[in-house]
Amino acid sequence: MTEENGGGRWRGVAKLGAVAAGLFAAAERRRRAAISAEAHVLATEQAVELAAERAALRTAEQTARQLADRNAPAAGAAPAPPEGGAVRTDDTVPAPRTPQPPEHQLGSAPLGRPANPVDAVPWTLRVAAESTWRLLLIGVALYVVFRVIDTLKLVAFSAVAALLISALLEPTVSWLRRHGVPRSLAAAVTFLAGLASIGLVGWFVFWQVSSNLDPVTSQVQDGVRQLRDWLLNGPFHLTPDQLNNVTNQITTAIGKNSEALTSAGFTGVTIAVELLTGVVLTAFTTFFLLYDGARIWSWVLRGLPRHSRYAMAGAGPKAWATLTAYVRGTVAVAFIDALCIGIGLGMVGVPMAIPLAVIIFLGAFVPLVGALVTGTIAVLIALVATASVGKALVVLVILIGVQQLEGHILQPLILGRAVRVHPLAVVLGVAAGSIIGGIPGAIVAVPLIAVTNTVTGHLRQRNAAGQEVFQAIEAARKQ
Q1: pLDDT for 21-45, tens place per residue?
Q2: Transmembrane residues, as ranges (predicted)?
Q3: Which of 77, 129, 243, 424 is the most buried (most CB within 10 A)?
Q4: Long-range CB contacts (within 8 A, 24+) of 431-438
């Protein structure tokens, strides 16, 4: 009885293995069939385009031949009868008539002009004119796109921020999925963990600032007092009355512009509300990208023209891989920058070294210039709080040294393989992004350039592969 039960279990295992092997084989056949179908569609599209070009060329040749036959009559042909249909019966030889050049040759005559005005325009001018109106059309389209983005900048920046955060958290979701966690639970756990991490970092920064506020305030007051003594006893030799007059002028200016300051306060409240709305919208979009990103991408592909779906279906995963590598590499570089500068600030004795390191970490998301700009705050705090020019210079040297480390070692080593963008393109992109969209535009500019570079490279390779396939098919047909 035991042997029969054991044999039954083994047969059941064998049947399950056979079913699994069959399912795997069927999936493999579907994958190969999909690849073959895409290659067939690509070859068919290339063949249709080439056939259309050949038909157009034959039509042009026939038209040119007909025009030549029409304008150049055959030698030895009988002359046409005179007008009215009458035929000469006498033997009088008519006076010879001066032959007239054909209509299409009038342009070569000194006093003639071409029948078609287009023929009188030089070729280079025609090319320049056609290129100009196409460039103007592209410029108008880009202007409309930028105007729409500027109108909906809150939605646009929230969506882009959600894409960047999703690119950072998606590997965690994939890792949980590989270990048997359902998709919804994996997305929820990853999203909540990321949200908790951001909240803990914000609480830590607030705690550090509030706990060090009183000592820093007293240090700043001492620095201001020393600055006043330096202005009175230093090379400027200001008198107390002159210094008091400057202080009174500043106070008067503040009193006169109180209305502007009040309106600025209301503007600050509006910005705070928009910021909160953007954070909520970003969080909402991030969760759905983590949970249902594949279906969202399929919906986007269905909205494209049919002949563009295959190309974008291959370019999409490559663009996502580039974006993921960029975000993860940028986070690593920003962490190293903040860690090195924070350790340097602590060694020099600058107050609030950890909050300053967090600010530098956030600023490092703008490549090449972000950490340098935010590090300037640390230099100013070192100058005012410690009232020491030497310590401020030491902080500046540390900042420049970390920037050199980032530009020559960290960026090429961590981001060089995944994001092949020239430093000049990075600098110009950051400048253009900051002009168009401020700080969010500067953050978004470089990943947008990297993704665009990846997509265009993939499309070029795909077109080149399609040409090779078509040439191979043509060579096989000729044989």
Answers
A1: 666 566 667 666 666 665 555 556 6
A2: 132-149, 155-173, 185-206, 266-291, 325-347, 353-373, 380-402, 422-451
A3: 243
A4: 436/146, 437/149, 437/153, 437/157
